[in-house]
Specification:
The chain has about 150 residues and is α+β, with helices and mostly antiparallel strands. The protein contains two helices and nine strands. The strands form two sheets. It has a six-stranded antiparallel sheet with strand order 1-5-9-6-7-8. It has a three-stranded antiparallel sheet with strand order 2-3-4. A hairpin with a 4-residue loop joins strand 7 and strand 8.
């Protein structure tokens, strides 16, 4: 006697697709697009991320200049109080800046942004978001939106 058992749950295909996308996109979590809320502190750009335990993590060594140019180009008023930085290792609609990986450097990674011709360094905190440094990153700056609950 031969028994044939077919298991077809619609969520299995979706789960497999999500896992493959995570591996292809090199993401540590399931989100293909990430959002940070940088703000100015002590004369530089920093961000907090409760999910990763980062507090006042600084953008330095050129990336601070990239962020300044991004908020100026986007026309964000009062960006120092905070703005939305959306980023992904894959292109997404209306991204404004791309970053090309150049090399590992001092525990972090150096990227080149062709839109403003600035080279900047991302510290090892990048690896809180990706298993390894992506070869390309795409980003966009937008005004922060407050939501009333």
């Amino acid at each position: 006697m031969i028994l044939t058992y077919y298991y077809t749950a619609p969520s299995i295909k979706q789960t497999i697709k999500q896992i493959l996308n995570m591996k292809l996109n090199n993401c540590k979590n399931e989100n293909a697009i990430q959002i940070l809320m940088p703000y100015e502190f002590a004369g530089g750009w920093v961000f907090d991320d409760e999910a990763t335990g980062l507090v006042r993590e600084a953008f330095v060594c050129g990336m601070d200049d990239v962020l300044t140019e991004m908020v100026q180009r986007a026309g964000i008023k009062d960006a120092g109080s905070g703005f939305r930085l959306t980023f992904s290792p894959t292109p997404f609609p209306n991204y404004t800046h791309s970053f090309e990986w150049l090399r590992p450097e001092m525990g972090g990674n150096t990227y080149y942004c062709p839109e403003n011709e600035i080279t900047g360094w991302l510290c090892p905190a990048l690896l809180k978001y990706f298993k390894e440094a992506p070869k390309k990153l795409y980003a966009r700056a937008d005004a922060a939106v407050s939501c009333a609950v």
